[in-house]
Amino acid sequence: MADAADRLVAPLSDTTARPRRALMAFGRLAVTLGVLIAAWQAFVTLSGTPPFLLPPPARVGAALIEQSGFLARQTLTTLTEIVGGLAIGVTVGAIAALAIAALPALRRWLLPPLIVAQAVPVFAIAPLLVLWLGFGLGSKLAMAALIVFFPVTSAFYDGLRRADPNLVDLAHLYGASPLKTLLLIRLPSALPAFGTGLKLAAAAAPIGAVVGEWVGASSGLGFVMIHANARMQTDLLFAALIILAVVAASLWFAVDWALTRLIHWSPEHGRRDS
């Protein structure tokens, strides 16, 4: 009877705890933002910094409101580039990791070029992508996908390599083919590592999209930043920067939220109590 009562009470307590945890998280975020804005305003007031160097928060807020329609359109452009590049980079990275893990001969040929390519700075690649793919969406998708590709490939491949050797040996003992071993043992055990790579990719994708816009674009938040900086419209630059930070943080938390439900059995990505 006691066990049955505990099973009935547990879901109810979890249901009431979730809104409380969400409210506490929102409260911590509000306090943090309030402290940062107050410190920003105090620094501007006490130091006498000119607005074209560091505008006060109220001026940035006014730019957000006055230019809301314009900024919304630029945000949609950048968000499309980020999400599209993230999807392409994650898909290609996952396929590459599976291919490298499944084919040792391919690993010897493909892994060294991947490492060398990652060592090349993204700013050096961006002008070439714009030259080859133009100023449109293609070069920004490629830039975001390239910066996402290596973290996903590296993390996922590392997870595939670290499968429990006892389970792998057991599969071999029962005559499982390398493909079945990969799909039924290595792949499930590598999902937490893939989730880690996915979160790294979600944090890096906005960088690739904005760098591509800095090099050459006709729209997007990076385009707004470059032109606002050239015209000394620092309040508009800060407004675009704040929106980009919100977009990047929202994307990361959305990926983290999805991982807590899709890989709930993993200690790294399982549901947290606080």
Strand content: under 5%
Computed Rg:
23 Å
Helical segment tally? Answer: 10
Number of domains: 2
Secondary-structure arrangement, i.e. CATH architecture of the largest domain: Orthogonal Bundle
Q: Assign an overall shape.
A: globular
Low-confidence stretches: none
- What is the arithmetic mean of pLDDT? 85
**CATH uppermost class of the largest domain:** Mainly Alpha
Given helix and strand content, the structural type is mainly alpha
Account of the protein in words:
There is one protein chain. The protein is mainly α and 274 residues long. The protein folds into two domains: 1-48; 56-262, Orthogonal Bundle (MetI-like fold). It has ten helices and no strands. α9 (221-230) runs antiparallel to α10 (234-262). It is globular.
Write the layout of secondary structure elements.
Blueprint: H1 2-47, H2 57-66, H3 68-102, H4 104-119, H5 122-133, H6 137-161, H7 165-173, H8 178-215, H9 221-230, H10 234-262
Helix pairs in contact: 2-10, 3-4, 3-6, 3-8, 3-9, 5-6, 5-8, 6-8, 7-8, 8-9, 8-10, 9-10
List keywords for this structure.
MetI-like fold, mainly alpha, 274 residues, single chain
Task: State the gist of this model.
The protein is mostly helical. The protein has helices spanning 2-47, 57-66, 68-102, 104-119, 122-133, 137-161, 165-173, 178-215, 221-230, 234-262.
